[in-house]
Design goal:
The protein is an alpha+beta fold. Helices cover about 45% and strands about 15% of the residues. The chain has 2 domains: about 55 residues; about 100 residues, no CATH class.
Length: about 170
């Protein structure tokens, strides 16, 4: 049996079993497409996570209040630790290697209008916050050392637009 006989026999068998041949080819194509989509989704997710981490900030250490896990100095474990607004000054004094030590005060604010309602997170920080956390400030309201001395009340443009009806 030479190659042409083998090829003729193979094509005759495929032609005789058309449905089985079609389903086999469909299964192979489906598997290849599925694997390609899963690999692409995984790569895209990895890239998205990396970009998100890059915009989080550079050389950042975040400390949260919470509860103590161990007993220290005769005090019980599980004590509630809360940061006060002025605690960052003491931390800055005890951390000379840190370029910036600053609080980030935040709260969720209920917003209501005739058309919508919801919760918007409001965050307050000192001027170097934008440099540390890689936050771009719009030119309309740039932070400066005078901003801290002049308290103001303001909403973001997106919050103002959010309260209006669409259409």
């Amino acid at each position: 049996m030479n190659f042409t006989d083998l090829l003729r026999d193979t094509l005759a068998t495929l032609w005789a079993h058309k449905r089985r041949t079609l389903l086999t080819m469909f299964g192979i194509a489906w598997g290849i497409i599925s694997i390609t989509i899963m690999v692409a989704a995984g790569e895209g997710l990895g890239d998205g996570i990396q970009k998100n981490q890059e915009t989080f900030g550079k050389d950042v250490m975040i400390v949260f209040g919470g509860r103590t896990s161990m007993q220290v100095g005769g005090m019980r474990s599980g004590r509630l630790i809360r940061w006060r607004e002025e605690d960052y000054i003491q931390v800055a004094k005890e951390s000379p290697a840190c370029k910036y030590v600053m609080p980030e005060l935040g709260n969720d604010v209920q917003v209501r209008s005739l058309f919508n309602s919801g919760t918007i997170q409001v965050v307050g920080a000192l001027p170097p916050f934008a440099e540390i956390r890689s936050v771009r400030i719009t030119p309309k309201r740039a932070m400066s050392r005078f901003s801290a001395a002049t308290p103001r009340s303001s909403f973001s443009p997106s919050a103002i637009r959010w309260g209006r009806p669409s259409g």
